[in-house]
């Protein structure tokens, strides 16, 4: 068949339109955030799934793997709850959410767990990473190896905190596997995720997981947020002897995310407590969130958070605030610097030297355990 030659102007216009369409498609694909999955933790039956195998950013749900690795170390005796961890310059430089730790200060492993669970502190995540992996980047390699050994085949970690990194990817299904592994492998430590608050240096930090104490049976585990990921939540709940795991990624706001996960939890228990109830019918009533791929910037007193931070006000510690995990914090005032000095006194302390396996040794060990 003869192909008709287009006039130069029309040909250029056609190419331009094609390029524009491709660009819009790429932008749309990059903007996709929403995904969810609900599983019966006892039978591992998937009760519900939407975009469960699509690549997503984990944000602070990354810290669940950091904690899993820490619990591994506690279980083997490599570390103890009372061991003091030293804060490096790199750890102290992490942006909010953080505890404003000072270089050279120390904290116990027990406090580190509380800070990660309730405060989602990025500086504490690095403190743990450097203790277990010598460097954060090396620890991220070990995290990825561990993820693969658990069956999280579509997950790659690049840091210990979940701060933005385009190469740090996971899926809702992989995160459900992680939650299940936490419940199975570290049941003795899971109670930390039920803590309603964490105290440090005279301050009390409320757990960011607002479903605790609100939704019947919910006893953990972690929230997360960055602009690229939207509002994420990994949760688990137990009622009448049945336990479910629910993952939601890419919420538009923390409130809509919480409401959606609550609906997922209720639908799950409706099917588990009433075998006659159709599972698909139960979840059909759980509507996909409005504008799921448009994670809006949170407001505080009617003003956008970025504006508040730019004006030098507001508390950038909460990981629900947009700039908390995505932009550098403003220069601290002298008063804040003094307060930080009081919060994290520097005491002479040398971290005990311990043998740290190479990545290849660790991988071989995990493969052996997996068998």
TrEMBL record:
EC number: 3.4.16.4
GO biological process terms, semicolon-separated: cell wall organization; peptidoglycan biosynthetic process; proteolysis; regulation of cell shape
Domain Peptidase S11 D-alanyl-D-alanine carboxypeptidase A N-terminal: from-to ranges: 33-252
Enzyme's top EC category: hydrolase
Pfam family for this entry, one: Peptidase_S11
Gene3D superfamilies registered for this protein in UniProt: DD-peptidase/beta-lactamase superfamily
Listed GO MF terms: serine-type D-Ala-D-Ala carboxypeptidase activity
Listed InterPro entries: Beta-lactam/transpept-like (IPR012338), Peptidase_S11 (IPR018044), Peptidase_S11_N (IPR001967)
Keyword tags: Carboxypeptidase, Cell shape, Cell wall biogenesis/degradation, Hydrolase, Peptidoglycan synthesis, Protease, Signal
Family, similarity comment: Belongs to the peptidase S11 family.
Protein's name according to its UniProt entry: D-alanyl-D-alanine carboxypeptidase
